[in-house]
Amino acid sequence: MRKDNQSSVSEFLLLGLPIWMKNQDIYYTLFLVMYLTTVLGNLLIILLIRVDSHLHTPMYFFLSHLAFSDVSFSSVTVPKMLTNMQTQSQSISYAGCISQVYCVLLFGGLDSFLLTSMAYDRYVAICHPLHYITIMNQNLCFLLVTVSWVLSCTSALLHTLLLVSLSFCGENTLPHFFCDISTLLKLSSSDTTVNEWVILTEGSVATTLPFICILVSYGHIGSTILRVPSTNGIYKAFSTCGSHLSVVSLYYGAIIGLYFFPSSNNSNDKDVIVSLLYTLVSPMLNPFIYSLRNRDMKGVLVNILSRGKFSPR
Fold it and tell me: For 189-203, how does the pLDDT look when each residue is reduced to its tens digit (9 = 90+)?
């Protein structure tokens, strides 16, 4: 993956989170519990959707892929961070670092596209309820998920290929808990103009454009809801998209805080903490948001627990 004449760096050093050494054990336990909660919670969502036929709808189809993406997103970064905290080792190989960059970009972009697909699903359900089954058919759902995967893989591959063409000589310390592409570019001894230009332009496709689509979808949804004459109708319409709005707020809130309001000084602490929000905190909270606010998910879970075993209905 890397030619010797391109770089003399065989590994990078991850400084990790900006926490005191004496508090390492406390934070290690906390992050381990959060990570296990993320994995178990999202896998539970996938399992519930898989075993119950009542959840075989477009919204839950997208949700199952989002849950898988969240598990993968956290698993790319958090286990390495926990290992480094436990062993006091900060190193990550060059190949491991590049692989981590690719996976972070892949699943980060996939989250964005899946949230957009879910927003479109809610738009059709509320604004065009009579045509919902016709529009949101199985072929369209598979197409939206396939396009999300293809765009995410292509985008991540483009950034990764441009990254491996750079040289890294001398400095190999990353003030982060994972290999962040922006942080890596600052260490490169090569001209990173092309990389930065691609990040800027491609970021509009992978992040800004989906966010705009989500805002437009909810603009139409809000307009439709306000025309509903009954209070019960308004409450029901809001309840169908409340969970999705909460997840969107968590995900894009962290992204906006990180990339649109960068640190005003040389400290990287804020960026590292915000990165932790969308790589660990947000994926951990998603299962709780969808299970606690969703009557169908709670009903399926209670039904399965009451039967004491997992069996298709």
Answer: 888 889 889 888 887
